[in-house]
Specification:
With about 625 residues, the chain is α+β, with helices and mostly antiparallel strands. About 55% of the residues lie in helices and about 20% in strands. The chain has 18 helices and 18 strands. A hairpin with a 5-residue loop joins strand 6 and strand 7.
Length: about 625
Amino acid sequence: MAWQVLIGNVAAVSLLISVWMHLHYRLYRLSDVQAKIAFGLMMGLGAIVSMVLSVEIDSGYYVDLRSTLLAVSAVYGGPLAVLVTGTLTAIYRISMGGAGIQPGLISIVVVSLLGSSVHFLFRRQPMNFKRIAAAAFTVALVSAAVSLAYRGDDPLITVLGFTLIGFVATLVAASVITYFHAFTVERDILRAALTQAPDLYYVKDHKSRFLVANLNVARNHGRTKSSEMVGLTDFDLYPREMAQAFFDREQEIMSTGNPLVDFEEPFVIEDGRERWFLTSKVPLRNRHGDLIGLAGVTRDITEKKRLIQEAVDSKNVLSQAMAEMSDGLAMFNPDGKLVFCNDQYRAAFPRSGYARKPGAHISDIVRAVVRNAERIDVSPDVSEEWIQTSAAQLFLTRDTEIPLFDGRWLSLRTRLASDGSALVVVSDITSMKHSEEQLKQLAQKMTGLAYTDALTGIANRRVFDEVILTEFARARRNSSPLSLLLIDIDHFKSFNDTYGHLEGDKCLKAIGDILRSVVTRPTDLAARFGGEEFAIVLPGTDREGALSLAEVLRSTLNQLAIPHRASSKSIVTTSIGVANMSDGSTFASVADLVRAADQALYGAKTKGRDCIAAAGDQATAA
């Protein structure tokens, strides 16, 4: 009968441990301290039940499984749990009375201390066989020690029997706790993965009712707890038409067994905003192959769709810009291979356009240009070294202008990116080059106009001033002769008054023609000095030579016989003043030389005009 009670005791202890493990899983929200206190309370309750079912082997001496529960509480719950368990156990044992109170309390303390020692010894290790064996051995050791110390007269078989029962009971209890602990850890990991995952995870039964849903599902539907989703269907969450579509799709998945993978579906929120979700659903079957529901995961891809749409829009804008732009555009990677080019880029090079395709190397493109004589500034006979050198210039930031065989000019602007790629922009600058050439010609023409008197076609006063300074300095430096002639048309104001300004201009042009005809040396200069006055600079010419040329000029004008009825000569005549620096006749400055010629001209005029006067001499008339 005693052995049957002990076996029942073992069953009761096992039942209480099983109840605790199930309660512990349900009470997963408890803190670590709360869980240990609850564990100690449950093990204390088990110890009390065990003592209620104890076997009294002698007056005041009881045999039960309290040590098993104390050891389990200490080994798996630590000091806090075993303190609660030991306190309850000790109180109840005291209440039972009898002669075995003292050894009973001693065994409670010893088991608690030994169990706590085992707990600290294996606290950094997972729940494994070592803990199970240590807990069972602790109970067996204490049971045997107490029996021998206080019941030494018991038969050995009885001591061994009680010790074996305690060992087996503890072994079973520790094994159950270890198993359920591992199971609980796995469930906690799965629960954490499900509830804390960033996406929407859920499980539904065969009628599309929610069985499990993570917190994100609840929040997405305005709930605060995952448990609030249990039992709901899509008809409780969405408009009927949308819910019916979801229901039909899920029923099809479960009826056909075909999963739904990465299905995109848009939702329109009440405020008009559109959200996109990516959903995958798979049918669930039990171990017998029977359909029991489905599992699904839904991911909010609204932001991803927005970014994709922005990328598509940007690409469309870029493609349109590439198609509409007038310039050619090409991108080469750091290895010199063409990565991208638009149609304008290929069209800009009609003879080598076939070689300008993605993947082509820049050296092959240069060879095509050379082989087809596309550039008129590049000989078809250039060496391979030249080709490689030209290809290497792709990776230099520079602007280049190249002439083509068809008369067009292209501008190549090369810029390097941070990754070593080269961007080339090709522009047709033919019109600009033509305009540039025209501007050059115009500039040359304007330059000529700037140095030429517009009416007479000979040099203007600006040129005269530059030349007389240069020649004066050279004459001083080389001690060479220099002569200056100042010429004035006699009574020219009266000529204009008599014949008008148009005839006056014709007269000035005629004088200019005469000056060009008599001044033939490249070093000599005939210039309009101002109004009806002219000047001739004669480098390297002495006094006699200057007077001789002056006489030729005067007589040539007389021979032309331009009518001038307001003059006493009846024709247009001129007065000439000559100044010369040679044979020691020097002037301190150009102004002194011009002043001497001007004084000589004044002397010619005072002597009756139509004559020549040299500085320091009397005027000579015809």
